[in-house]
Amino acid sequence: KKPSETAADYQYIQSCFGLPLYSGEDSLQLENILCTDSHENCRLYFTEGKPAPVEEKNALVQKFLRDAETQRKKNEAYYQSRRDFCQNSIHQLTQQIKNAMLVYPQPLKIPSRSGRIFPREIWKALVLDDDRIFMETTDEEQPDFSVDLMLDASASRLGSQEIIALQGYIIAESLQKCGIPLQVYSFLSLKGFTVMRRFLSYEDKDCSKEIFDYCAAGWNRDGLAFRGAGHLMESSPAGNRLLIVLTDASPNDDRRIPPDSSKGRVLSQDYSGKPGIEDTALEVNRLKQEGIKVMAILNGSDADTLAATRIYQRDYVRIEQLEQLSQAAGTLIQKQIQQLHS
Q1: DSSP state, 260?
Q2: Which of 208, 271, 294, 323 has a 20 to 30 A CA-CA distance from 36?
């Protein structure tokens, strides 16, 4: 691609999805680490959706922003129309998680200047001059795990945006009520950029309604999204990390996988079907090797359970109705809490 095209694409992404989370230099460093091998022709764009200060004249961008605002209103209206059901679901899921935490209580680990060294904090000493790179255990019982919730926001979800936003809200509210550190973001890919839109970070409290900003567009390069999630989870305050994905387990992107003779790939391949599924399974496996527990909630009857089994093995559940969500999510989370102690 010509540099002018790349700059125009970047401008389009920024105008549609908001200012980047990282400076240009940090973004470039991240892309050099994450956008490699199968994803070497791709870009990653992290954002929290803060609008660009200059009003956009581009008609396509204006339409995108109008559609996104319309969708936000639809998501909120859907929540209002099912408010009682929503509160019941939150209550039910909160109780399930609390019950699991009572069976498996965990002492709280807090950053400290002495104690057991905590490898994930070392960068703070180097970059931020923060010497609290050790962990000290207190007797106060507190969940020693964080949860990241990642929502597929590709165009295949266009028919279920309100449902997915509500599912995300119910899960987020329940986890926050249990005092579990939580991060929520969506992913989609457009013009070669995998856009990770963060609604909630670990520090945020009572911001769950930000999730109603969820809207779908474009493609989904699941493997690269998992790399992005792995990066976002590095800031987790907890010793154990869980990642829940709301998905249809159908990776599909318009940027091909480049040839790689060392992996027996003489020609480039479409990022869909078997190659897309295999790449996603590989990235999920990498996260597991880093100690991250990955699980999926499959939406709708068209979700691909064969692909889900290949990618997530047994750590997924399929739901066809919203009413099944709290029970299904509760069972998944309980199972993972048990595994933290097995």
Answers
A1: B
A2: 294
List the strands of the sheet with 134-141, edge to edge: 107-112, 134-141, 116-117
pLDDT tens-digit readout, 193-248: 999 999 999 999 877 899 999 999 999 999 999 999 999 999 999 989 999 999 99
Strand ranges of the sheet holding 240-247, from the earlier edge strand across to the other edge: 43-47, 193-200, 182-190, 145-152, 240-247, 292-299, 316-319
Biggest alpha carbon distance in the chain? 58
Helices (H), the chain: 3-17, 24-34, 59-81, 83-103, 122-127, 161-177, 222-232, 273-289, 305-312, 325-339
What tokens appear for 165 in the block? 């936003």
Q: What is the per-residue pLDDT across 68-121, written as a single tens digit (0 to 9) for each?
A: 999 999 999 999 999 999 999 999 999 999 998 888 665 545 555 656 665 666
User: Residue type for 7, please?
Assistant: A
